[in-house]
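Input set for joint prediction.
Command: fold jointly, output tokens.
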Amino acid sequence: MSIVVVGSVAFDSLKTPFGKRDKILGGAATHFSLAASYFTDVRVVAIVGEDFTAEEEAVMTRRGVDTRGIQHAKGKTFFWAGEYGDNVNEAKTLDTQLNVFEKFDPQIPADYMDSEYLFLANIHPALQVKVRDSMPGVKLVGGDTMNLWINIERENLGEMLKRVDVLLINDGEAKMLSGDGSLPRAARKVLELGPKALVIKHGEYGATIFFRDGEFAGGHHPFRAPALPLDEVRDPTGAGDSFAGGFMGYIASQGEITRRVLKHAMFYGTVMGSFAVERFGTERMQGLTREEIDERFNMFRELTHLD
Amino acid sequence: MSIVVVGSVAFDSLKTPFGKRDKILGGAATHFSLAASYFTDVRVVAIVGEDFTAEEEAVMTRRGVDTRGIQHAKGKTFFWAGEYGDNVNEAKTLDTQLNVFEKFDPQIPADYMDSEYLFLANIHPALQVKVRDSMPGVKLVGGDTMNLWINIERENLGEMLKRVDVLLINDGEAKMLSGDGSLPRAARKVLELGPKALVIKHGEYGATIFFRDGEFAGGHHPFRAPALPLDEVRDPTGAGDSFAGGFMGYIASQGEITRRVLKHAMFYGTVMGSFAVERFGTERMQGLTREEIDERFNMFRELTHLD
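tokens >
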């Protein structure tokens, strides 16, 4: 099975209490691809500028990621500069330069069309709708969004929500999207907007998946996966995209989409998110082994399982 | 087995987004006793004033709680008025009248002396030390504290920490007590101050227990119990004390103190905390059944367990 991810490839300049890095490889599609590559074949659709070199591309291709869907445009790659204080859940944006990303018109290569899984990383919801409609054959669509689109693109976002099977957002976004401060009520309201399942990420407290009644075999009670109590979050950038990569990658590696598969996918999502933050940028996600992943999976199981 | 709890019995006036109540029965020892009463024999040591009537006492005795350790003094019972906004984790104190509680000098009745378990609810740490030393025969001591004592009674608190086996505090208190913003590091630092185990409560995200290396049979990895995603937290007052009651009550009901018992106790703690907040004051905790408790226990298991 293979998965197509559509989203940003970017350069990030980051400052955290543990240090700083200038213009390192980042972007939602990058973090997602690397995390998902440990589970399934990944095909990426993105746009980069002339400052994106063979070195950056090799970070993805070394992990077997198919980069033929990356468009190369005149100009510079999407650039973001941010800083994290002691509260690693809150990024302070210092600079955003959309550059070539501003004119991103995602095109799915013909060779990608047999993919059964699709992940719409956080881009303009109208583009997400277009991409999703251009791949009518996919079996499962995952999607992300952000507070900006919830605020200013409600109509397009509504169309996008009708087209995703699983939406992955965080606590604040779920409350904003539903207009409800109670997380379980917020979850039900979001599920009424379209998705069959909703993953709400709680940062250092893990994530919960809520299911629409009647969807997915095996019951409809929510399921919560823990985050590992980590000593040091060196760089939280990409944690959510790495979660999504582990989550969607694991699902794509399985033959069926059941509640049991989705529960295990939640664990693999939190596992990949916990690795991502251990080092800056994609550093940790470049050189993992499947053994390390399974070892941490077992730690998470031991952390939460009674017997 | 029986457990002695020493703490406040109070009247609370509460306002939450779901309504208000004037002068209803509250206090840490009250909430703890009721929750623990579903697991073991509970004996309470507290002080009340002349406004505390047979009606309030009956709330405890109907649940089999031994109230002979409640001192009756001239004056009024400890009174607290508070308000919760949309963020139910933050109480706004409107009024605090210590009244007879100010002169509380806890005395353990001779008939309580054969208890093997002791819980020191949040009172002045010097009193906690005195009580603990007056019961040298106990097998396990649990304790609570608050930010006030962390700020102004550091020395007495240090003595208290050397005398408790399990400390139960929340995220903010753990960070304040350790001076460390990273929860796992904060946990290790607190464990170095005395306790063999530390329970950190995360509000709606559950709670984690950290173990001192070498203590308790069955490993030393932390363990996290979830909180139920609840639609409506009607009144969070007493959630932490009800957690402690379920946690300590379950431990006291078991013959041994192992990691396995402590893990199950974490689940029973979160179960009782989740019931407590469903209604105002002690309303929910007065009329539970063991069947309801076990049903919710199983929901929590299903919420977090993969298989």
